[in-house]
């Protein structure tokens, strides 16, 4: 069935009302709702309004603290460590990026690590926070649940552990790279489950190494890493830096604990500390145009850069609205009825 389109302000208002009804303060509920929909605007459909039912469930069953206090418990001139207080991940990461940007303004670069956080949507929205400040942004996170195994193994000890980079251009759109270290982000698997779609071969395997294409049977298998052992190595290193360094959960620690204790990290890098900002952005534009105009293989219509699709989707969805498939609408309606709020328009 075809997804209906819901105007962006309507989706944000609905999410804000749901967060507030689940115990989040009005100001934080509005902020979290705006950040939640950023994932939809980037085309990351498995991380936006699709996740609202999960987030509200966590707030209502005590797995996420609607009144969680976010604190900076250690810091230096260019570093900070944040305890998220088990608050909504979007609120925790908003604080982390704000701290990183402020420190980078005076120190040139800043690294902020986080523990006690939760799922915070698409990685790209956090790397992008630095762009308006003429900074390069880098974000990495440890998945709050394990879906991958070490290369050659079957035990779920690794998350999909994403990493994102954002680099500004002058006239060209920023270059925005966002990837999970698994072949497919778990959000994509969940979207396929909700739509009753089959999974492509090569996403998930069972204990004998055979492909699983039935999205409802993914719990019997593990997601495969990108690039075989290389993706496994990336996931491992992101876990050590994003979780272990910060005191977050990683490895065989229980993933069904009351709190996920998600670890995250963000880096803000001030371009002016390395040269003229405009000159740098002009060079980024040149590289982008060189790549787009480079020779194409037979049958290839265009060569795209990381972020091209995200910016095209943003323009289209700001104009036409966020697509809400029937299965998702039904879940949102059920959630709204349980909360006692008006359904999404």
**Elements, N to C (H/E):** EHHHEEHEHEEEHEEHEHHEH
Runs in which pLDDT lies below 50 for 5 or more consecutive residues are: none
Q: Decide which structural class fits the backbone.
A: alpha+beta
How much is the radius of gyration in Å?
Answer: 20 Å
User: How is the CATH topology of the largest domain named?
Assistant: Ribosomal Protein S8, Chain: A, domain 1
Head-to-tail CA distance between termini: 18 Å
In CATH, what is the class of the largest domain? Alpha Beta
Compute the average pLDDT.
Answer: 93
How many discrete domains?
3
Approximately how much beta-strand content do the residues carry? 15-25%
Query: At the fourth CATH level, what is the homologous superfamily of the largest domain?
Result: Malate/L-lactate/L-sulpholactate dehydrogenase, NADPH binding domain
CATH-level-2 architecture of the largest domain: 2-Layer Sandwich
Side-by-side strand order of the widest sheet: 2-3-4-10-5-6-7
Give the strand tally: 11
Biggest sheet, in brief?
7 strands, mixed
Overall 3D form: globular
Helix percentage range: 25-40%
Q: How large is the count of helical segments?
A: 10
